[in-house]
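INPUT
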Amino acid sequence: MKKEFIITIYSENHIGLLTRITIVFTRRKINIESLTVSESAIPGIFKFTIVVKSTEEQTIKVVSQIEKQVDVLKAFYHTNEEMIYQEIALYKVSTETLYDSDQIEKMVRNSGARILEITREYTVIEKTGHKEETQQLFEQLNKYKVMQFIRSGRVALTRDPIERLSEFLKERDAFLEQLD
Amino acid sequence: MLAFKTKSLVKTSDMTVKKVSGSQAVILSILEEGVDTIFGYPGGAIMPIYDALYDFDQNVKHILTRHEQGAVHAAEGYAKVTGKVGVCFATSGPGASNLITGIADAMLDSVPMVCITGQVTSPLLGTDAFQEVDVVGISMPVTKWNYQITTPEEIPEAIAQAFYIAQTGRPGPVLLDITKDAQFGELEFKYEKCRKIRSYVPESPINPEKIKEAAELINQAKKPMILCGQGIIISQAEEELKDFAEKAGIPVAWTLLGLSAFPTEHPLNVGMLGMHGNYGPNLLTNEADLIIAIGMRFDDRVTGKVSSYGEKAKFIHFEIDPAEINKIIKADVAVLGDAKKALKQLIPLINKNNHNTWIGEFRKCDNIENEKVIHKDLFPSKPGLTMGEVVRIASEKTNHDAILVTDVGQQQMIASRYFKFKNSRSNVTSGGLGTMGFGLPASMGAQLGAPNRTVVAMIGDGGFQMTIQELGTIVQNKLPVKIIILNNHFLGMVRQWQQLFFEKRYSFTELQNPDFIMIAKGFGMDGHKVDKREDLESGIQKMMDHKGPYLLEVTIEKEDNVFPMVPTGASVSDVILEP
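OUTPUT
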C-alpha cells in the first residue's frame, strides 16, 4: 500500500549530488512530493529531506540505491508518525480586505499564524504546520482572495532521543581507521 | 622516476613536488596508478592532454580507435581480462557523448573504468559553446561516480579518487570531465593514492554470524545449488569457489558473466543459467531446496518469472553491493562483503558431503538436452552450417584455452553455451546492457590486456557492422585477434523471436551484407569465407595458424535457433527445448 514516507539523506556537499539523488526517483517513476536541502548541524554535511508517496518495499529499495551513491553518507526512511515535521507557508492578501472585515484577523489568531509585514497595498501572513493546516488556512483566506501563496518543503526531526548522524559518524570513523 | 622531456618542468629539491601543467598532471597521475594502456580519440578540448601524452610514449601505450565507442568497449575488454582499470580519453561534445553506451555497459557489468573527457574552457560552460555537452549530467545515471574539474589543482586528487572508486567494492565506470583551462593551468604536482573516502564503504567486513547461519543451511541442505556470478572473478575467488563446491559436493551453475570462473570440465559444473542457459540448472532451480548465490544479482534473464523462481528453495546471497540484497529475491541469509573473504571463512564450517543423487538429476537433464538440442547443434547432419559446430571447433583448435569475446545475440548465447574454459577471465561479453557492436572493439582491448593469449571474437553479421571501423585499429596496432563472423544474413536473435512469438513476421531483420572479406582486406587484414562443412575445420585451423589478425566469415543456416529457451515472463522450470 502506498503512503507517505520521509527520506532523510546525509551527504557530502558536492555539486551534482542532488541530480544523482533525484535520478534514483525519476528512474522508478516515483514523484517527489517535497524536497528540502540544507547544511546539517555538522559543518560540511548536508541534509536532504524528501517526501514521497510509495510502498514501504519500494522505499527501502530507493533508500539503498541512494546510499549506494558515493557521496552519500547515510540515508534513512521514516513514516510520518515517526517524525516531527513542519512546513512553512506564506500568504499575501490585500491590506484593504484586512480593514474591511475582522474575519482575516480572526483566522490569523485562531490558526496560530502571524503577520510578517504590512504595507499600504498588502499584508503577508506566515503559518507553520502540516500541509493540511496550511492548506486549510489558504482556503479560508482565499475567500477574501489570496494574492500570492507559497509553501515550503518539509523539514523533519526524528522522535529518536539519540542523534543518529553523530552515532553513525563515530562508527564510520572507526571503520575508516581500520582501513589504514 | 619518469623522464621528462619538457623543459618547463622544474625539479625541486623535494622530488615529489614539481610544477607541471594540468595536462601533464593528468598523465603523471594515471602513470602513478599504473596505467599502461589508454584507449582514446583526440579532439579540440582534450588537445593539451594529448600534447602532454606525446612526451610519455615510452611510459604508456595509447591506442587510437576509429570511434569513441570503440575506445570505451576496448577499455572494457582490457579491464575484463586484466582486472585492472580500463582507461579512455575523449574530447568534449560528441567525443564524450559517444562514450555513453560503453559507460552504461560498464556500469551494468561492474567493469572498472576511468574515462577522461576534455571540456570547453570554464568561462564557456553553459553557453552552448562549440562541442560543449553536459557530459557530467548525461553520464550521471550510468557512472559509479563522476566529477568536473575546472582548476588544475584538483587534478591529482580527483584522479586518485576516480581510480579508487572505479576498482574498489563493486567496480564501475567513473568519468572525469576536465575543462581546457584546467588542462592549461599550472600546479605543484604531488600524488597521493586515495585509500579512503568518508562517504564510501567499498565493502563491508564479513559478519561471522551470517557465515555461521549460511553454513548451517548448507550443511542441512539436500538439494543445494551454487549460482556463480562475476563476483567470483572480480574478487578472485575461483579457488575458494572450487574448494567450497568440492568439499560440500554442490553443483555449480553460472551466469553469463560468471562464465570461465569455474572450469567447464569440472565434474560439478552443471552449466549456464537463464533464458538460453542449460536445461538442468533452469529446470532444477525450482527443485532445489537451497540456492547459494555468489556475486550475482538475479538479473531477469536469469530468474524468468520472479514469483515462481526457486519456489522450494531458501536463498543465501553472498554480495558486495548492499543495494543488491533483497532487490529481486529475498535472501534468507545475506552475507555482505567480498566473496573471496566470505568463502574463506565459510569453508571450514562446511561438512564434507556429496549430493550424488541430486547431481544425477542434472545429468539426466543433460542427457535430454544433449539428445534434443546439443548434439544437433554441435554435430549437425543437415546441410546448413550451425553456429554450434563453429564454436565447438574454435574451442577445440585453441585447446579450450583461448579468451572468448562475443558480441550480442544468438552467437553470444551459442558461444557461451559451447565454448569450453580452463582459465578464469577468459570470457568477455556484454551482459547487462546487451550492446551490439561490443565484440570487435572489446576483442582488441582483450588482446592488449592478454598479449600472449589467443583471443577469439565471435560476432554476428549485424553487430559486426555496428563497429566495423575498428578493423582499422586492429590492423594499425597489429593485434592478432581471430575474428569469426557468424553470418546468417539476419539479425538472428530478433528473427528467432519473430519466428517464435510474432508468427514469422520478419519485420526489418534481414540484412543485405557487404563482402566482409573484401572489407577486411581493404583494411589490410587477411581473411576468407567458409560456406561448406568440409571446409570449416581447415578454415578455422588456417585462421589459428595465421600470424596477426584474421577474419573468418562462416555462412550459417538462416533459421538456426538457440535452444533451450525460457520465454519472457515464464518460470525457469517452463524452459523449452524445441519450438
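end of record. The radius of gyration of chain A is 20 Å.
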